[in-house]
Structures are given as C-alpha cells and as structure tokens.
C-alpha cells in the first residue's frame, strides 16, 4: 500500500465492532493490518447473520454482512492465543508491529502475557490501544460494556425519541451501533497521536479508551446545554433543542427535513411558503425568539408545509438556498446521485463470493488517497503468508502447528 500510514503495521486482537472499525480505518489509510482470530471460529461477527454474503451461485457464504462492514484491508491470521505456543507466536509478531489494538475485558489479556506491560517489555515503543466499555479505572472498570447499554447509560437515549408519555413516546436507541463506531474513530485519533509522539521521542504508550467516555464526550451541545443551565435536556423527537425550525415536517405526500440555521434562511423560507409577515413577527424574528416561541410557530409551519408535495418543497427551497431534504430509506441512499458520485457504494473482489458490496471511506485525501486493497478476508486466509514472511516459519513448522490446533492454515 502507498497510503499515509503505509509504514505502519498493526496487530489487531479486537473483534465485534469498535476495535475492528478502528483497524479498518487505519487499513484504509494504508497501514498493514494483521487480524488475529480464533482458529475455526474467528471473529464473532462472522456468524452474526442473516444476512450472509452470497457467493456467485447465490448461496450463503460463512461470513455475515455484519463482519463485512468493518474488516476490509486486513489479513486474517488464525492463532489460538489461549495456548502457550500461540502466545509465543503473537509476541513474535508484536516485535514486528507498531500498534496493538485489543478490546478484551480489563486484565483479560494479562493471563496470556499479552497485556500492555508484558508487551512493552519486549517492544518498548509499542503503541497499545485498549478499548473497553468503561475504561481501565473506576468503579465500573470490570463490567462488560455493549453499545446498547452505553447508549442508555451515557444519556444519549434520554434525548432520543418522541416527547411526552404517549404510546410512541419513550427513549429510543440510535439505529446503528453509534457508540461503537465513534469509539473506533476516537481510537484511530489516539493511535495517530501516539505514533506522532513515538516518532518524536521513541516512546510508546498505552491508550485507554472507553465506550462510555466517548459517548459522554459526544453528547456535544446537549452536554453543555445541561452544564450551562442545569436544566436536564428532554426528548424532542425530530426537533432541535437550540434551533427552530430544525425538524421533520409532513408534506402532502411524504416527509421533509427543514434545517433553518439562521434568521436569513428563515426569512427566505417564509417567502417561499407564502407566509408573508411571519419573519417580521417579533416572536419569530430571531432564532432565540423562535426557540422561546416554538409551540406557537411550529403549528403554523406544519399547516403550510402540509399543503404542498415533497418535490415541490425541495425544488423551491433549494432554489432559495434554504437547507432541506427527504428522509431516505437506505435503498434510496445507495441510489442517490451524490452518494454514488462520491464513491460511497462499491464492490471488492472476494475469494469465495466473487464480488462483495462495501461502503466507501468518507476520507478523501488528495495526496494519499484511501486504497481498497482487499475485501474482508476469509478466516485464516493469510496465516501461512504472514507467519512465513514475517516470522520466517517453514512449511513444516506451519503444518506442525496446524496439526496441534495452535494455528489454522
């Protein structure tokens, strides 16, 4: 690879989503990723289906779509880390790597001699990233952490969902594992910062990143709304706590998002909507006033927007430079001309399935563009090559280890 991180080799001991999301992002940027998996079983998400990726005959393969979302640009090496010989192999690989990523429970790798202190002793400048639910310290450190649990404990779900006490009201989780994904991205930031420090000083370090910390940090304006006012934010459905109008509205034949970000845009909206004088009403002239008088303004807008079609609104509001858009189902997302033009829908060659779908990276770098070198690997696809090329093991060595169940080839 010739990406920005093509000089970096990562040993990925993680599984499920947060860790693999981090290593996939590093791989997209050119790093060499060696993914250690359990012989015969592999990453848990290989089996989190249906749906499974289908082969060229339309039959299910062994790998779920879930696994495919976070594991491209990696080499799969199957080693039994519970065995002493497997641990020895992994330690030898660590000596040839720059980064280790793991998401075991706190202290879970110490019994294998694969914790930070143990690996630092054999490679002093290793950058070691630990991803857990709650971090390496604190009263919850030994608890298992899962995305859904973190969405609830972090407060995210308390501001997501319909307001009130009706049958549709109540807290709702985000429809993707957002806490995992954000944690993976923060892990990438931490790894890159630690590598920059290593390059200047020769020192490695331990990165302690937790799902709960990340999700609390990314409460963003909602967190500061509370800390500044001491008022607990409430669920507002599709409305915004600090901007009005900034929500979904029903048109005559669908739903539209109206995202008015300033007073000038509100005046333009009123002109398009034929709501003469509304933008000059003292209750609605400024965003502050509109937030304070939300309950009076929104019904007026609802009635006006309901009178015309979705296409009419989008055509006329876009012409007036008022931010708006449809609420797309995911099938429509991958038919959207902007999404297609930006390369967000793609396919990769796969050894079992021929061609498999993938979602492109949002990172667009002019000098070191993202490279899609390989589809997510089949289990143990690269065991022989990696152990032969990096550790100089012979074919007879590999066959003997395979026979013992230490590796899978």
Q: For the largest beta sheet, what order do the strands appear in spatially? A: 8-7-6-1-2-5-14
Radius of gyration: 25 Å
Q: What integer is the average pLDDT?
A: 96
End-to-end separation:
24 Å
Write the topology of this structure:
Blueprint: E1 9-12, H1 18-28, E2 32-37, E3 52-54, E4 60-64, H2 65-68, E5 75-79, H3 84-94, E6 99-102, H4 116-122, E7 127-132, H5 147-153, H6 178-201, E8 205-210, H7 211-217, H8 221-229, E9 246-250, E10 255-259, H9 263-273, H10 287-292, H11 294-306, H12 310-319, E11 324-326, H13 330-333, H14 337-341, E12 345-350, E13 354-359, H15 383-391, H16 395-404, E14 407-408
Parallel strand pairs: 1-2, 1-6, 2-5, 6-7, 7-8
Antiparallel strand pairs: 3-4, 5-14, 9-10, 10-11, 12-13
How does this structure look, described?
The structure is a single chain. With 409 residues, the chain is α/β, with parallel strands linked by helices. The chain contains 16 helices and 14 strands. It has helices at 18-28, 65-68, 84-94, 116-122, 147-153, 178-201, 211-217, 221-229, 263-273, 287-292, 294-306, 310-319, 330-333, 337-341, 383-391, 395-404; strands at 9-12, 32-37, 52-54, 60-64, 75-79, 99-102, 127-132, 205-210, 246-250, 255-259, 324-326, 345-350, 354-359, 407-408. The chain has a 7-stranded mixed beta sheet, with helices on both faces. A 3-stranded antiparallel beta sheet has the order 9-10-11, covered by helices on one side. Helix 1 (18-28) links the parallel strand 1 (9-12) and strand 2. Helix 1 packs across helix 6 (178-201) and helix 6 (178-201) packs across helix 7. The protein starts with 8 loop residues before the first strand and ends with a strand. The mean pLDDT is 96.
